[in-house]
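User: Fold this; tokens only.

Assistant: Input:
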Amino acid sequence: QVQLVESGGGLVQPGTSLKLSCAASGIIFANYDMAWYRQAPGTQRELVAIIDIGNNINYGDSVKGRFTISRDNAQTTTYLRMNSLKSEDTAVYYCNADRRIGLGPRNIWGQGTQVTVSS
């Protein structure tokens, strides 16, 4: 079964931290770039962070310096550590896998996890 399952979202106060997880199954995880996207109501989906198969990392401008993406190929899991959270970070966060090499599904999305930052 091919799937990405996000977890770790919730309601938190501004200035606090949260760590999201994305567990992948049914794919050769090391062959996929892993990314986090988010979408707030009434807005377009935006790239939060991406870590490719060579562990090269890029962040969206709005989260640079606050968020950290990582991956554990042995655990087939990608993480997003979010620090200094702001109300503007409130969104549904989606995990994405995009195949770079090999065979298998080309692009996979998780179901999303809600992050709400509010005082």
